[in-house]
Amino acid sequence: MFDPTMFGYKTFIQRHFHSCFKRFQLKKAIKSIIFIRYWKRKLNNLREKGIFFVNEGLANRCLKNYNTFSGHLKKFDIQNKRILLKIDIEGNEYPVLKEDSFYKYLDNVNQIIVEFHDLKNRLRDVYAIIKKFNTSFDIVHIHGNNYSGTFILLGEEAENDIILPDVMEVTLAKREGIRKEDIDNSIVCYPIPGLDFPNNLKCRDYELKF
């Protein structure tokens, strides 16, 4: 699991603890200690399941704590491993996915989960990216992130207008791995009960009926 922000957050909590301790804000300082211990315990639980966090992120070029997808594959010697690629990088997915070179390294990727941000301003970019994926992947699931707002995609007639979430989670599967018996041609409305859950548990999930 690649994330360049998680360990920096741990450092922030430690600084917060020292700051509270110096100000004699003991309750806040104790909460910081509890959080750090909880964090360490969670990381250990994940390691026991074979899940490890790497303090690096994904970008379209090498930076301080960021590397390209091909760079990650080479650095960690996973060129021949089966890969589930999940990309949730808060709008920075566009520079990565607009690079043609990115698509050269998807041979061993079986599934891709991408969270597309700012759809109201980036629909053309999303369309172009999906077309590139579509050479060997099919969309098998979508979900609207209800932490975001919505916007109206105008149709030729008012009744054809579509309400879309500004942030959308899209799951793609390698076409060659999809079995014919798994294909369902019926019309499905999202979210699917028991499968989809709202990102913000305090609000209803967005309904997608297209």
Question: What does this protein look like?
Answer:
- The chain is of the alpha/beta class and 210 residues long.
- The strands form three sheets. Strands 3-4-8-5 form a four-stranded mixed sheet.
- The model has no long low-confidence stretch (mean pLDDT 86).
- The protein is 32% helix and 19% strand.
What order do the helices and strands come in, and which of them pair?
Elements: H1 6-22, H2 26-48, E1 57-58, E2 66-67, H3 69-75, E3 83-87, H4 93-97, E4 109-116, H5 119-133, E5 137-144, E6 150-153, E7 162-165, E8 168-174
Parallel strand pairs: 1-2, 3-4
Antiparallel strand pairs: 4-8, 5-8, 6-7
Helix pairs in contact: 1-2
Query: What does the average pLDDT come to?
Result: 86
The major sheet is characterized as: 4 strands, mixed
State the shape.
globular
Indicate the low-confidence ranges by residue numbers. Answer: none
Structural class: alpha/beta
In helices, the fraction of residues equals: 25-40%
What letter string, H or E per element, gives the SSE order?
HHEEHEHEHEEEE
Which strands sit side by side, in order, in the main sheet? 3-4-8-5
Seen as an oligomer or otherwise, the chain set is single chain
* Estimated share of beta-strand residues: 15-25%
> What is the CA-based Rg, rounded?
21 Å
Question: How widely separated are the two ends?
Answer: 33 Å
